[in-house]
Amino acid sequence: MFILPDLPYAYDALEPTVSAKTFTFHHDKHHKAYVDVTNTLVAELGLEGKTMEEVTLFAAGDKSKKKLFNNAAQSWNHAFFWDAMIPSYAAPEGELKAAIDAAFGDIAACKEKFVAEGVGHFGSGWVWLAAKKDGSLVITSTHDGENLLDQPDLTPLLVCDLWEHAYYLDHQNNRKGFLEAWFDTVANWSLAASQLSAAKGAGAVWAYPAPQ
After folding, report:
1. pLDDT tens string 48-67
2. Which of 5, 54, 109, 204 could form an S-S bond across to 104 if both were Cys, CB 3.0 to 4.6 Å?
3. What's the CATH code of the domain at 155?
């Protein structure tokens, strides 16, 4: 059975960018519902013991398993999203900063492209900063519950949630303002650096907690 991971910080730790009220609904209700449905479907299909990554990829390859995919992928996306934020913001440095500069020019240009990708994404989904196997960086977005697990050439470094429930209580319909504040105040560049190293073969990539 998959668990609902605890937030890696207090509910109010990311205010005002993300409020405790938003986390109460987003983590405790939305994310929990995805995990609960995933567990129910996993049991029905005899998939106990598989990782969340394995369940998601299994469902992604079978159109008849759309409900399982939506819930497993959203379980994974949200858990990664919580870890992609941090209360004690620190700017990227070292190898990660060099990769950002090489891909975008500088961190300001990276932010501009990240925000533009998120603002320009129609409907619900996710905006990602990802690394290719050669360490070069790209920014992309996915719809609804889709993620990058089925794209083996890409390793996610960071992700921001574009579903309205992620920001509406705090920023109303100002998705751009939310993305700008998110990038400037809570993006976890330490996680991004670790993921970049993993993409290049040094260390393990982030994974959802193993089933219990």
Report:
1. 999 999 999 999 989 899 99
2. 109
3. 3.55.40.20
